[in-house]
Amino acid sequence: MTVSVTREGAVTTLRLDRPEKKNALTQAMYRDLSEGLRSAEADPQVRVVLLAGGTDFCAGNDIADFAARKEEGPSEAFHFLGALVGFRKPVVAAVRGHAVGIGTTLLLHCDVVVASESARLVMPFTKLGLVPEAGSSMLLARRVGAARARWWLLSGSPVSGHEAAQAGLVTRAVPDDAVEEEARSMAETLAALPPAAMAETKRLVLAAEKEALEATMQAERDSFGRMLRGEEAQAIFRQFLNRSG
Predict the structure, then answer these.
(1) In angstroms, how far is the first alpha carbon of the chain from the final one?
(2) Which residues are CB-contacts of 176 (< 8 A; sequence separation ≥ 6)?
(3) Cα–Cα distance between 159 and 167 in angstroms, integer?
(4) What are the φ/ψ torsions at residue 223 (nearest 5 degrees)?
(5) Structure pTM?
(6) pLDDT at 72 over 60
(7) Going by CATH, does the domain composed of 3-179 fall within 3.90.226.10?
(8) Domain locations in the chain?
Protein backbone atom coordinates (compact mmCIF):
# COMPACT_ATOMS: atom_id res chain seq x y z
CA MET A 1 0.00 0.00 0.00
CA THR A 2 1.52 3.31 -1.06
CA VAL A 3 -1.38 5.28 0.45
CA SER A 4 -2.56 4.19 3.88
CA VAL A 5 -5.91 5.18 5.37
CA THR A 6 -6.45 5.21 9.12
CA ARG A 7 -9.06 6.78 11.37
CA GLU A 8 -8.63 7.93 14.94
CA GLY A 9 -11.78 9.40 16.38
CA ALA A 10 -13.20 11.89 13.89
CA VAL A 11 -9.93 12.37 11.98
CA THR A 12 -9.05 10.24 8.95
CA THR A 13 -5.40 10.25 7.92
CA LEU A 14 -4.41 9.72 4.29
CA ARG A 15 -0.69 8.99 4.41
CA LEU A 16 1.61 8.75 1.40
CA ASP A 17 3.85 5.74 2.03
CA ARG A 18 6.41 5.39 -0.72
CA PRO A 19 9.53 6.55 1.13
CA GLU A 20 12.02 5.05 -1.33
CA LYS A 21 10.74 7.55 -3.94
CA LYS A 22 10.12 10.43 -1.50
CA ASN A 23 6.40 9.77 -2.01
CA ALA A 24 6.47 10.61 -5.72
CA LEU A 25 2.91 10.13 -6.92
CA THR A 26 1.79 7.48 -9.39
CA GLN A 27 -1.58 7.23 -11.11
CA ALA A 28 -2.52 4.46 -8.67
CA MET A 29 -1.67 6.68 -5.70
CA TYR A 30 -3.84 9.47 -7.09
CA ARG A 31 -6.72 6.99 -7.40
CA ASP A 32 -6.23 5.89 -3.80
CA LEU A 33 -6.18 9.49 -2.58
CA SER A 34 -9.35 10.29 -4.52
CA GLU A 35 -11.08 7.25 -3.09
CA GLY A 36 -9.90 8.15 0.42
CA LEU A 37 -11.42 11.61 0.07
CA ARG A 38 -14.69 10.25 -1.32
CA SER A 39 -14.99 7.76 1.54
CA ALA A 40 -14.22 10.43 4.14
CA GLU A 41 -16.78 12.76 2.55
CA ALA A 42 -19.47 10.09 2.75
CA ASP A 43 -18.71 8.98 6.34
CA PRO A 44 -20.54 11.12 8.92
CA GLN A 45 -18.11 9.92 11.59
CA VAL A 46 -15.25 11.64 9.76
CA ARG A 47 -15.05 15.37 10.36
CA VAL A 48 -11.49 16.19 9.25
CA VAL A 49 -8.95 14.68 6.86
CA LEU A 50 -5.24 14.85 7.64
CA LEU A 51 -2.85 14.52 4.68
CA ALA A 52 0.64 13.38 5.64
CA GLY A 53 3.77 11.77 4.30
CA GLY A 54 6.81 10.66 6.21
CA THR A 55 10.34 12.04 6.18
CA ASP A 56 9.26 13.64 2.90
CA PHE A 57 5.77 14.86 2.16
CA CYS A 58 5.68 14.41 -1.62
CA ALA A 59 8.26 14.64 -4.43
CA GLY A 60 5.61 15.47 -7.03
CA ASN A 61 4.76 13.20 -9.94
CA ASP A 62 6.71 10.03 -10.55
CA ILE A 63 8.12 11.04 -13.92
CA ALA A 64 8.53 7.49 -15.24
CA ASP A 65 4.93 6.67 -14.36
CA PHE A 66 3.77 10.03 -15.67
CA ALA A 67 5.60 9.63 -18.99
CA ALA A 68 4.26 6.08 -19.43
CA ARG A 69 0.62 7.21 -19.34
CA LYS A 70 -1.01 6.47 -22.70
CA GLU A 71 -4.75 6.91 -22.22
CA GLU A 72 -6.53 10.05 -23.38
CA GLY A 73 -8.62 12.29 -21.16
CA PRO A 74 -8.00 13.74 -17.70
CA SER A 75 -5.30 12.04 -15.66
CA GLU A 76 -5.89 10.64 -12.18
CA ALA A 77 -4.07 13.73 -10.88
CA PHE A 78 -6.86 15.95 -12.21
CA HIS A 79 -9.51 13.66 -10.68
CA PHE A 80 -7.71 13.91 -7.34
CA LEU A 81 -7.50 17.70 -7.54
CA GLY A 82 -11.21 17.84 -8.32
CA ALA A 83 -11.97 15.73 -5.26
CA LEU A 84 -9.73 17.90 -3.08
CA VAL A 85 -11.09 21.22 -4.36
CA GLY A 86 -14.67 20.04 -3.84
CA PHE A 87 -14.09 18.44 -0.45
CA ARG A 88 -16.51 20.02 2.03
CA LYS A 89 -14.83 19.04 5.28
CA PRO A 90 -11.64 20.60 6.67
CA VAL A 91 -8.33 19.28 5.33
CA VAL A 92 -5.12 19.59 7.35
CA ALA A 93 -1.70 18.84 5.86
CA ALA A 94 1.48 17.84 7.71
CA VAL A 95 4.52 18.66 5.58
CA ARG A 96 8.06 17.51 6.23
CA GLY A 97 11.07 17.27 3.93
CA HIS A 98 10.42 17.70 0.22
CA ALA A 99 7.15 19.04 -1.20
CA VAL A 100 7.65 19.28 -4.96
CA GLY A 101 5.26 20.36 -7.71
CA ILE A 102 1.79 19.15 -6.84
CA GLY A 103 3.22 18.34 -3.41
CA THR A 104 3.22 22.11 -2.89
CA THR A 105 0.32 23.27 -5.06
CA LEU A 106 -2.17 20.90 -3.41
CA LEU A 107 -1.48 22.76 -0.16
CA LEU A 108 -3.34 25.73 -1.63
CA HIS A 109 -6.52 23.65 -1.27
CA CYS A 110 -5.91 22.58 2.31
CA ASP A 111 -7.51 24.55 5.12
CA VAL A 112 -4.57 24.20 7.51
CA VAL A 113 -0.94 23.42 6.66
CA VAL A 114 1.70 22.67 9.27
CA ALA A 115 5.21 22.51 7.80
CA SER A 116 8.59 21.84 9.30
CA GLU A 117 10.76 24.93 9.39
CA SER A 118 13.32 23.09 7.25
CA ALA A 119 10.83 21.69 4.72
CA ARG A 120 11.73 22.35 1.09
CA LEU A 121 8.78 23.51 -1.02
CA VAL A 122 9.41 23.92 -4.73
CA MET A 123 7.31 24.31 -7.89
CA PRO A 124 9.76 23.36 -10.69
CA PHE A 125 7.28 23.46 -13.56
CA THR A 126 9.32 25.66 -15.90
CA LYS A 127 12.39 23.50 -15.28
CA LEU A 128 10.39 20.55 -16.62
CA GLY A 129 9.12 22.46 -19.64
CA LEU A 130 5.65 22.62 -18.08
CA VAL A 131 3.28 25.14 -16.50
CA PRO A 132 1.66 25.42 -13.05
CA GLU A 133 -1.39 23.38 -12.12
CA ALA A 134 -3.95 23.02 -9.31
CA GLY A 135 -5.03 26.62 -9.78
CA SER A 136 -1.67 27.82 -8.49
CA SER A 137 -1.24 30.38 -11.27
CA MET A 138 -4.08 32.27 -9.59
CA LEU A 139 -4.14 31.10 -5.98
CA LEU A 140 -0.45 31.47 -5.18
CA ALA A 141 -0.43 35.20 -5.91
CA ARG A 142 -3.55 35.67 -3.81
CA ARG A 143 -1.89 33.83 -0.96
CA VAL A 144 1.66 35.21 -0.97
CA GLY A 145 1.48 38.28 -3.24
CA ALA A 146 2.22 38.70 -6.93
CA ALA A 147 5.95 39.40 -6.60
CA ARG A 148 6.75 36.25 -4.63
CA ALA A 149 4.37 34.11 -6.70
CA ARG A 150 5.89 35.16 -10.01
CA TRP A 151 9.42 34.48 -8.81
CA TRP A 152 8.59 31.12 -7.26
CA LEU A 153 6.65 29.93 -10.32
CA LEU A 154 8.96 31.33 -12.98
CA SER A 155 12.26 30.35 -11.36
CA GLY A 156 11.25 27.16 -9.58
CA SER A 157 13.34 28.33 -6.61
CA PRO A 158 12.89 26.33 -3.38
CA VAL A 159 11.19 27.86 -0.36
CA SER A 160 11.77 26.74 3.22
CA GLY A 161 8.89 25.93 5.54
CA HIS A 162 9.88 28.91 7.64
CA GLU A 163 9.74 31.26 4.63
CA ALA A 164 6.46 29.69 3.47
CA ALA A 165 4.88 30.43 6.86
CA GLN A 166 6.13 34.01 6.82
CA ALA A 167 4.68 34.49 3.33
CA GLY A 168 1.34 32.90 4.21
CA LEU A 169 1.63 29.82 2.03
CA VAL A 170 1.40 27.58 5.10
CA THR A 171 -0.41 28.14 8.38
CA ARG A 172 2.39 27.37 10.79
CA ALA A 173 6.03 26.28 10.72
CA VAL A 174 7.38 24.20 13.60
CA PRO A 175 10.45 22.03 14.26
CA ASP A 176 10.54 18.84 12.21
CA ASP A 177 9.80 16.52 15.11
CA ALA A 178 6.72 18.55 16.08
CA VAL A 179 4.96 18.63 12.69
CA GLU A 180 2.71 15.59 13.02
CA GLU A 181 1.77 16.32 16.63
CA GLU A 182 0.88 19.92 15.82
CA ALA A 183 -1.08 18.97 12.69
CA ARG A 184 -3.05 16.32 14.57
CA SER A 185 -3.77 18.73 17.41
CA MET A 186 -5.13 21.31 14.96
CA ALA A 187 -7.15 18.63 13.14
CA GLU A 188 -8.69 17.49 16.42
CA THR A 189 -9.53 21.09 17.32
CA LEU A 190 -11.48 21.41 14.08
CA ALA A 191 -13.05 17.96 14.46
CA ALA A 192 -14.52 18.97 17.84
CA LEU A 193 -16.49 21.87 16.33
CA PRO A 194 -20.03 21.66 14.85
CA PRO A 195 -19.60 19.99 11.42
CA ALA A 196 -22.41 21.80 9.59
CA ALA A 197 -21.02 25.17 10.66
CA MET A 198 -17.54 24.07 9.56
CA ALA A 199 -18.77 23.00 6.12
CA GLU A 200 -20.79 26.17 5.58
CA THR A 201 -17.93 28.39 6.72
CA LYS A 202 -15.58 26.64 4.30
CA ARG A 203 -18.12 27.06 1.49
CA LEU A 204 -18.46 30.78 2.18
CA VAL A 205 -14.70 31.32 2.39
CA LEU A 206 -14.19 29.66 -0.99
CA ALA A 207 -17.33 30.91 -2.77
CA ALA A 208 -15.90 34.20 -4.02
CA GLU A 209 -13.11 32.54 -5.99
CA LYS A 210 -14.96 29.38 -7.08
CA GLU A 211 -15.81 30.47 -10.63
CA ALA A 212 -12.41 32.04 -11.26
CA LEU A 213 -10.67 28.96 -9.88
CA GLU A 214 -12.59 26.62 -12.17
CA ALA A 215 -11.69 28.74 -15.19
CA THR A 216 -8.04 28.93 -14.13
CA MET A 217 -7.75 25.19 -13.58
CA GLN A 218 -9.27 24.49 -17.00
CA ALA A 219 -6.85 26.92 -18.65
CA GLU A 220 -3.97 25.27 -16.79
CA ARG A 221 -5.09 21.80 -17.91
CA ASP A 222 -5.19 22.95 -21.53
CA SER A 223 -1.75 24.56 -21.32
CA PHE A 224 -0.28 21.67 -19.34
CA GLY A 225 -1.38 19.14 -21.94
CA ARG A 226 -0.03 21.25 -24.77
CA MET A 227 3.32 21.84 -23.05
CA LEU A 228 3.57 18.19 -22.04
CA ARG A 229 3.39 17.18 -25.70
CA GLY A 230 5.89 19.85 -26.68
CA GLU A 231 9.55 19.29 -27.47
CA GLU A 232 10.87 21.06 -24.37
CA ALA A 233 9.12 18.78 -21.92
CA GLN A 234 9.65 15.66 -24.01
CA ALA A 235 13.39 16.31 -24.23
CA ILE A 236 13.62 16.84 -20.47
CA PHE A 237 11.66 13.67 -19.79
CA ARG A 238 13.85 11.66 -22.18
CA GLN A 239 16.96 12.96 -20.48
CA PHE A 240 15.56 12.08 -17.06
CA LEU A 241 14.46 8.60 -18.09
CA ASN A 242 17.77 7.83 -19.81
CA ARG A 243 19.68 8.96 -16.73
CA SER A 244 17.51 7.00 -14.28
CA GLY A 245 17.40 3.96 -16.56
Answers:
(1) 24
(2) 96, 116, 117, 118, 119
(3) 10
(4) -65, -40
(5) 0.95
(6) no
(7) yes
(8) 3-179
